[in-house]
Amino acid sequence: MSQQTSKKTVAVIFGSRSVEHDVSIVTAQQVMQALSPQKYNVIPIYITRDGRWVTGPGLRDLNTFKVDNISEMMGIKDVIISPSTQHRGLILSPVSGLFARSRLQPLDVAFPVVHGSHGEDGTLQGLLELADIPYVGAGVLASAVTRDKAVLKTVLTGLGIPVVRHIAFTRQEWVSGADALVSRVESELDFPVFVKPTSLGSSIGVARAKDAAELRTYVNIAANFDRRILVEAAVEGAIEINCALMGNHDLRASVLEQPITWQEFLTYEEKYMRGEGAAGMKGAERRIPAPIPDDLAARIRETAIRAFRAVDGRGTARVDFLVREETGEIFLNEINTMPGSLAFYLWQEEGMSPAQVVDELIRLALEAHAEKRKTVYNYKTGLIEHAAARGLKGIKK
Question: What is the pLDDT of residues 225-234, one digit of tens each?
Answer without folding.
Answer: 889 999 999 9
